[in-house]
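Render this sequence as a predicted structure.
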Amino acid sequence: MLDDFSVRRRITLWGLFFLICFGLGYPILNRYDPGKVPGTSDAAYYSDAVRAPVSFSYRALVPALARPFYLLGKERIGTWDPALFGLLVASSILTASTAIAIIAIGLRCGFAFMTSLVGAMLFLFNFAVANWNLAGYVDSGEAFFLALTVWSLLSQRWYLLALWAVPGALAKDTFAPFAVVFTGIWWFNDRPLRPARLIWIGALAILSGWTVLASLESPSGLYSGGFQYAKEMKAFSQVGFLRATLRCLTVREFWFVFAWLLPLGLMRIKRMDRRWAWAVTVTFSLALILGGYNNALGNTTRAFFNIAGPLLSLAAAVFLTQGSSAAHQRPLLRK
């Protein structure tokens, strides 16, 4: 089934996905500036990071990828903001690559190519992609490296975890705890247990953790000092931890993203790899705890989607394509 995903097809689909992503993110070029809209001020920091980059700064990967496109578009793209243009191109590259990774994951799980393609399209057309991943933020980087983490684990290429650690943490600091917990739960649910693989989880934890702490300590970082950052983010004290946590699940952003994705995905969640489902469940819970601690409200939904979006999109695709005999094939890696 992996033969269905030839290099030529990958390149063609990637180009298609890139154009779709650029179109979905177009409003930030000619409709509104996300850095000036209340509640989206982080986008202003990322735009500034594109215009005046500092090496190894906080969440530097996406702005660094955007920088060449900013220089290319500067004074050549009319009324478009060149920094936002660069961020959109960079985010479109990463989001299109995430969609390709989802197809590869679906094929690796033993699903038909069409089912895997539908899963990737459901991911792209979700509220979260147009309104966050392609809207001047850096969530596209976290989503991409979490998807690569899933693909690496399904492919039994645990050594690649060390490769994703630094760029993943530079894309977004939350990648570090999410990826470590995700891979740890995956390992725990694997059979037979292979203690040697803990080496690669340890490498992921050390490299990503060091990267986050180093970038937080950087004078150019949005927050200065890792421990001070954690102390300052204790925002739940304003409303209480339980209430802050529950609000992460009741805000409108959560329902915009999961109102259809969650029920459709849960319809066929048993068809998905058990290790993946457990890893998503526990990591999703971690994101919820962190969201409650930070009283992050709808911002937590961005993390929820990056963690659970690929799994639920593929599961929903299985449900939607169940009329096809190919979609009923038993997943190769369901354990």
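Summary. Residues 221-229, 324-328 have pLDDT under 50 and may be disordered. The CA atoms of residues 279 and 301 lie 17 Å apart.
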